[in-house]
Design a protein that fits this description.
Blueprint (H helix, E strand, L loop, with lengths): L1 H4 L3 E4 L6 E2 L2 E2 L3 H10 L3 E6 L6 H10 L9 E3 H12 L4 E5 L2 H9 L3 E2 L6 E4 L7 H12 L3 E4 L5 E4 L2 E4 L1 H12 L4 E2 L5 H11 L6 E5 L2 H10 L3 E5 L6 H4 L8 E3 L3 H4 L1
Parallel strand pairs: 1-4, 1-13, 4-5, 6-7, 6-8, 8-9, 9-12, 13-14, 14-15
Antiparallel strand pairs: 2-3, 10-11
Helix pairs in contact: 4-5, 6-7
């Protein structure tokens, strides 16, 4: 644990680590205060794309945690950055919420539901048959299919809810096209986070509740990994998985002591 506490940079997931829905998890507030008190470099890196950094800041503030917008990176932001680098000024048809639209606009991309360069899918509650049908038609016409992240499920106050990969599955199945996913565990988003931290991978750690995204992201990027059991993954699940994290904790509060 002492070696973990000596790390300089902390990349931390949010859903299942800091909160479930609007419920703050045990130890989260103490952990964030510890990051500040110890002068650590830290980024909250979420595979969710529905909220902007400003909205995430406001959500955390309502829970009693004050963290500036500069400390957040979303899968929507990483997706927008990637698409802007691949196709500057490109066009998108988007199934997603406000945070994803904002990130794409800020990256210089525009919306097009006729002949876009990309069909982009992120988490959203505004998911319906008409949007899926149009997305399928556009992909078949040549639009490239992009998913903000590859999560099948996400934790909520009520339990498990469908996430991006579950929402994009009908489009993939009907078109026969496989989406390219930008969020964790894609090393693209990890390099983005390390640049923002200003830290080397050897002096950094990633904290998350999912083996298939957070922990794999760390392993593939050669960053030490911390699995917390406050979200999706259970100890029983670990018996079926052929890789393991560097640390396993009940919650992030164990780091701050």
């Amino acid at each position: 644990m002492e070696e973990l506490r000596l790390k300089r940079g902390f990349i931390c997931d949010m859903d299942g680590v800091i909160y479930h829905g609007n419920k703050l998890l045990d130890g989260a507030k103490e952990f964030v205060q510890w990051l500040k008190d110890e002068g650590k470099e830290y980024i909250f890196l979420t595979n969710s794309s529905d909220r902007s950094p400003k909205e995430l800041k406001q959500k955390m503030y309502r829970m009693g945690i004050e963290v500036g917008e500069e400390h957040y990176i979303t899968a929507g932001m990483a997706t927008a950055s990637f698409l802007a680098s691949q196709c500057p000024g490109g066009t998108c048809y988007v199934i997603g919420d406000a945070g994803l639209f904002q990130a794409l606009y800020e990256a210089g991309l525009s919306m097009d539901d006729n002949s876009p360069d990309y069909v982009v899918v992120g988490e959203t509650t505004g998911y319906n048959y008409e949007k899926i049908e149009l997305a399928i038609q556009l992909v078949l016409k040549g639009a490239r299919l992009i998913g903000t992240n590859s999560d099948l499920t996400g934790p909520t106050e009520k339990g498990i809810s469908p996430a991006c990969r579950a929402l994009i599955a009908p489009i993939e199945m009907v078109t026969g096209r496989e989406a390219y996913y930008i969020g964790k565990p894609n090393p693209l988003i990890m390099r983005h986070a390390l640049k923002r931290l200003g830290c080397q991978r050897e002096e950094s750690v990633i904290i998350g509740d999912r083996m298939d995204t957070d922990i794999v992201a760390g392993l593939q990027s050669e960053i030490d990994t911390v699995l917390v059991l406050s979200g999706i993954t259970t100890r029983e699940d670990l018996k079926q998985i052929p890789y393991k994290p560097h640390y396993i904790l009940e919650n992030v509060g164990e780091i701050s002591g």
